[in-house]
Structures are given as structure tokens and as C-alpha cells.
Design a protein that fits this description.
The chain is an alpha+beta fold. The protein has 3 domains: 75 residues, Arc Repressor Mutant, subunit A (Orthogonal Bundle), CATH 1.10.10; 151 residues, Beta-Lactamase (2-Layer Sandwich), CATH 3.30.450; 94 residues, Heat-inducible transcription repressor hrca homolog, domain 3 (Enolase-like, domain 1). The protein is 40% helix and 17% strand. It has a 5-stranded antiparallel beta sheet with strand order 7-3-10-9-8, sandwiched between helices. A 3-stranded antiparallel beta sheet has the order 4-5-6. A two-stranded antiparallel sheet has the order 1-2. Helix 1 packs across helix 3, helix 2 crosses helix 3 and helix 6 runs antiparallel to helix 13. The longest helix has 18 residues. The protein is globular. The termini are far apart. The relative contact order is 0.14.
Length: 384
Amino acid sequence: MELSERKLKILQAIIADFIASGEPVGSRTLSKRLDMNISPATIRNEMADLEEMGYLTHPHTSAGRVPSDMAYRLYVDQMMQHSELPEAEKEAISQKMADSAVELDKTIEHAAEILSEMTNMMSFAITPKADERKIRYINFLPVDERTVVLMIVAEDGKVSNTAIKLTCDYNEDNLELMSKVMTHNFKGHTVSQVLTMDIIDMFENDIYALGNLPGSVMPGFMKTLESMLNVELYMDGYTNIFDLPEYSDVNKARSFLQLVENKDEFTQVLVNRDSGLVVTIGDENSPDMKDCSLITADYKVNGKLVGKLGVIGPKRMKYGEISSVIKYLTDNISKTFQIEGPADSEDTDSGPHETADIAAAEPEGGGSSGPGEENTPKEPKVNE
């Protein structure tokens, strides 16, 4: 059953009312607020249809209805107003940000504080650590005619294997040349430094031999680098959750705090999120976050993605307003740290990150790794 215009208006009104009040919405309350000339009985019937379709749920303790995850998704995708922030708020944010716009990490930490203050939510930001990983070498292993395994080895011994589906043919000579060129260009650089480079331009001298292979490999390469980022997590606004009715129960509040205090897991969730302004609701998150919504957006240095800024909270949140604040803050950071002018290319969403269950090859010359260590292949040599 498709949603009629009337059902859409009723659903939008229910979502708006519930976000504002936190109380289940009844048909009589709705009929007083809707400027549609419909009776409470008709609204009740429409609400029953919406519940049957999965857009509303019916708490046992109330006669009213509350939006489901599916309703919030429809709201975010089709109904949410992406409003511009008032000029006064923009000016206030810009002034506050200018006070810390000297070092990136201090700016990001300050941005998380401002975001928490403006949204009354728990905010977070991730940024690369000063001692982040440096690349040692890169290798490609053939799997089948359109699949290769990308292997990136860091100087600290971290090995990342990723299966990449290609859009073009390749041969072993192509892969060997790609390994040599990429190792030569990126060896000794940090992961975040590589993420800010114009990578495709580095293959200009080898484009005849490599053809379309660099362009086919790059989305998976960038996604793998993002998963290797050694990042700093900043969080602010822990006490804000105690002002939300969803966490008035001490046990629920404790569970939420335990979730975000597991910083390693939470950081990995943030690193693996897609680029752009991303809203995930309820079951779209991992099972331990099924009662939460996350909104994140990227910020950039010199036009290249570096980190993320966002909020986590109950599914009942002001998605439009919060998204606008996050977007303005990340745009402000990106402009502040724009060094060489606008980026030449758009970010590419490479789809889900896939890790190959393929063991790394043993180095030439024999020997095996110790307990708990990955075998490490021989570093490709480059004729300089």
C-alpha cells in the first residue's frame, strides 16, 4: 500500500509532535493541530493503517502512537527540512571557531564542544593522531579475473588485506607495476598524508602500461586507508543525556554511557561510516546501538577527507536542525584548513569495505612469523 498525501501529512505531523514532546501522539491531539478538516475518527483509521504498514508503533501504556525506525527514515529522506542556520548563529559559530583555528586537533575538539552546546546532544569528533601509522609498502595479489587483494603494510607491523572488485581487466605485470609505483610514492608517509594526496596524478608516467587499473583500484585503496587511520576521539556533552526523557531510567543511561565509553569500538564504527552527511537510525546501526541515531559529516584538510564530526542520541532527535549545525561546522573547518585551493575531484563512495580472509604470503628466504603475528610478504623493489 502506497502512502497517500493525507497519510504522509498525518505521519509527518506525528513525527514532528513526538520529536518536540517525547509523548505518544493520539488522534484527538492530532486533529486539533492538523489544518486538514478531518475528524479524530478518520485520523484514527489512518493511524491504524500507518501502524499496519510499519510506520507507527503502539506503546502498551498509551493510547497514542510513536514513529518507528522506518518512519524516521522516511522523514529524513523525504520530509526533513535542510534549513540554513540563522546568520546570528553562523556568526557566533565562526567567532568561536576562530578562537582555536591554529592547530587542527584543538579546532576539532572545540568544534565538538560547540556542537554539544548547540544541540544538547552528546557530540564526538575524530582526527588523526600525531603518531599515526606510516606506510611501509603496498602489494597486490591476484584472486580471479576481476578480483585482487590489496595488502598495505604499515611500519608498526599492521597489515590490512582487502578484496577489491575491479571494473577492468588486469595481468600480473600490471599488479607488480602498481605495487612498485604505489610503494615508491607512499612509503614513509602517514595514512592521513596519503589520503590528502592527488593519487591518480602520481600514475601519469605509467598510465600507458596501467590503463584503467589505477582508477579501478583507488576507491578500495582509499577505503582501506580510512580503516587504518590511527585516530583521536573527542567526546563532549556526556551530561546532556540526563536531560532527555529516554534516559530518565538510570539503567538506560548507564547502558548508553557504557556504549560510548568503549572508545575503541566506537571509534571503529565512526571510521567505517560512509562519506558525506550520513544519518543512521536504530537498526541501521550495530545491535548495541539499535536504540540510537547517529549523524556524522566529514571535514577536510586541503580538500581531502581527514575526519568526522557528529552526534549520537535517541532516535527522537531534531534531525534537520542538528544536520544543519554539523554541516556548517564541518564546512567551517574545511574552509579554515584549505591550503592549496579547492580539490580537483569529488570524493568517491566505494561501497562496503570488504576484508579478505587470505593469509599474507611468507617472505622470501623462509622463516615464519611468531605467535599471533601475520606473515609479511617481501617488499616490492622499485628501480629509482
